[in-house]
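Input set for joint prediction.
Command: fold jointly, output tokens.
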Amino acid sequence: MKARVHVMLKNGVLDPQGEAVRHALGALGFEKVEGVRQGKVIDLDLASDATEADVTEMCEKLLANTVIESYSVEML
Amino acid sequence: MKAAVVVFPGSNCDRDLAVGFEQAGFDVSMVWHKDSVLPEGVDIVGVPGGFSYGDYLRCGAIAAQSPICKAVVDHANRGGYALGVCNGFQILTETGILPGALLRNAGLKYICRTVDLKVATQDSVFTEGYTAGDVIGIPIAHHDGNYFADTETRAALKDQDRVAFTYAENPNGSVDDIAGILSENRRVLGMMPHPERAADQGHGGTDGTAMFRALAGMLATA
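tokens >
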């Protein structure tokens, strides 16, 4: 069983790396880019009896810092 | 007076912090991250700078889950003193002992230079050797020192006079120019600048010495 966790900076938290990517895209002539937010994807290989609740607990305890980040869990 | 300095894989300011405490008169023991208890009778725990666990996942995130950090959290919850510098500050926010988080510097660059800090409060064992409003020169050396907290937390920090130091000129984008904050009971300080790197004439400045001296003075009489 596999799960995929997406971790993103929350709205309202400045993402300087995303901003730098936006500037770089602009410099390359991609003028239609209005904003870039950069996040993380974490793939987990899990035992067959693992549940979404288990992964949510992992996110709360370690994978995301909920002060600055939001997360979503996808069971694959 | 006993101090313990925690050593993680990737810590690189542990010895400097130990010397800072020693010069002020503390007996210092180094504590390995896999230890699950602090030495008996420790008055203050130092969480040093560096790159614990290679900054993997987030700075300080994995260190915050280590066995010794559980002991540091218990120590703080019992009213024990702790000083987290740089990566140590990041670790203390990740454990939840201190509020907020440290983000990538707004300018995206690693910054290593001495900056002017304003002493924002002298009401703590860490800062009572200074006068509020003093400007002191303390080195910074970080890539992720951009302090962030939501507006509610920032209001609480301000109302409770828990901002210990602010940057005279904000180098990294930190909200409200915050360089260091205190816990609610004022016994835990986390700060990005390195007072232990300004604690010997050979460092080119000794503005950090007053912190270690004040700590020693207060804890000796406590």
